[in-house]
Amino acid sequence: MSDALADKAAALDAADQLARHRDLFALDDGVVYLDGNSLGALPRHVPARMQDVITREWGHLRIRSWEESGWWTAPERIGDRIAPLIGAPPGSVVVGDSTSVNVFKALVGAVRLAGDDRDEILVDASTFPTDGYVAQSAARMTGRRIRALAPHEIVGALGPRTAAALVNHVDYRTGRLNDLPGTTAAIRAAGAVAVWDLCHSAGALPVGLDAHGVDFAVGCTYKYLNGGPGSPAYLYVRGEHQARFDTPLPGWNSHEDPFGMRPAYAPGEGAVRGRVGTPDILSMLALESALDVWDGVSIDAVRAKSLALTDFFLECVEAYVPAGRVTSVTPAAAAERGSQVSLSCEKAGDVMSALTERGVVGDFRRPDVLRFGFTPLYVGFADAQRAASELAALLS
Question: Which helix (H) or strand (E) holds 33?
């Protein structure tokens, strides 16, 4: 069986139209990197770009680079690079700050948009903890109450008291893909505002923010977008809401006249309202350079390969790993799956450490989950087959 699956992997890799993109990344020979859902691999060309940023733009031009090198307009310019990957129009995405900060901006802005007569915020109970912490703080600050629900329960809980709902597109622990189109439609039909966290979906599958009527969205850029550790996050504000977006963090960068230094705040127009303080230029420009790997790439092709990879990995796990040693907690149905496979396993932390020693890098989430992220631009089918084979060797 192992020879048959290895042959199948080789045939799938040979037919893979995205396989050539693997050479764009700095990857170690003999290592299978399946942790791109935590930190994407480094695009090979980024160090040379950053050398130029540091030595010429910062070292030689210095303050002139804010204008001459385009530093000042980077948040909106890079936002427009990300926009097609998440199905957003130009002028609707701004890059800067962390995901946590952008969740705060989006959720408070959503509550203010909804109006004072709505006193409830619905939150995905399985959310990444930061989203929950920020939502609780936003609720206290705006005088609302929080209701934490499983994502599939949110639609049934909507009502005239609902101000906003904050939902993860893909569950970080299980890899479950939640129903963004249907949930968003229900939220908006109830008169509430939809806020989505795209951290585990952007760059791995089509999102369709504009087509599906999403009001606000946030996401990080260091996972499937390969922006580097701690690279700045982004904020999407639907066009129809931009003029009424009342940010809770009105920094000087979002002022209509930043260098006027006026004491009274007057917001700028469009995506610039999502800015706060001075952009973190070095990480911002590393992200901009990293996004070059997406030139000419179809997100639909990425999704097709993602599903093929995760299907194949699950097939290999079933064939290789002794029965009862692992259980998939990732949905089997393609329509309900992101771009990772999570396996429940006894002593999962020890198992992942041993896998890493054997050259297969995934990650572990307490108490018992092994996570394997499949980044279609640089992960191949032979990687999936080897990962399952090494896992089986450890558990046999």
Answer: strand 32-33
